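Dear colleague,

Thank you for sharing your sequence with our group. We've completed the structure prediction you requested, and as agreed, I am returning the results in plain text so they can be pasted directly into your records. Please verify that the sequence below matches your submission; if there's any discrepancy, let me know and we will rerun it promptly.
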Amino acid sequence: MNKKYLYIGLIFLLAGLFLLVATDRKRKSIDFTCVEISSNKVSGDSLSPVIINGTKVVLLKGYYGCNEFKRGDLVVFKLKIRDDLFIKELAGLPYDKVEFENSNIKINDKILSNSEKEIYQFDERMERILEIPLKDGVIPLKRFLVLGEPAFASDSFDSRTFGYIDEEYIIGRVLTLKEFEKRDLGGFDFIGLVIDGKYLSKEQVVITLGITMSGDKIPLGFIHSTTENSKSINGLLKDLIRRNFKFTEGLLTITDGSTGLIKAVKEIFDKYAITQRCT
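Please find the predicted structure tokens below.
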């Protein structure tokens, strides 16, 4: 066998089958070693139009155990006095400078606004809630400002109401399923592809995982399917190609030996792929 493919096989053997390290669409590393992935449905419109009521999202539980907090992340958290989970945008980080001006908030000298470019409004009570914990005008260590989409104070249930949240109450980060499934794949140099069926909550999901020349493991996409038939898998693989998945330089595909998976690989990738059965 070509040494190139032997090398890929060793990567899979050492790393296991799934989700160790991935890279997001901006090519900044995402470490999945601390992450538990699940799918959830959003209830409420506090993040509309970014996320509307009923939208399915991917919850990356434990994400910040091995990844940095970044402004703009959509974080999942709970409150000390409530067991409900909430999703808001991470708008302020530890050591950010906080100022209030004409009922608006400035973070590091920039006035904050929502996705519709509406400036966030704060009444006097909300300003006091956020000013009291400040240390020399900056957000304390392990404290975070989170905001929803409503610009007006009367419509808010976020840090304007309950103040900064402690790091210990942050559960993880979320991605919308649409965002996850529509990522452009043209920037990656793939040499391997794992296709496997898994049962999640008694439902079968067929999952694809790409391997790059540098050894990064990239979750690519998935479908709900009652069987691993070639027709449904064809659609999944065609979607990867539509998203600029590169394979014409040669591709090692690894499956569980399902006839439907192998047939789909041959139909879509033709002579460019060789197939290895995982055991």
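Summary note from our side: The radius of gyration is 22 Å.

Kind regards,
the structure core
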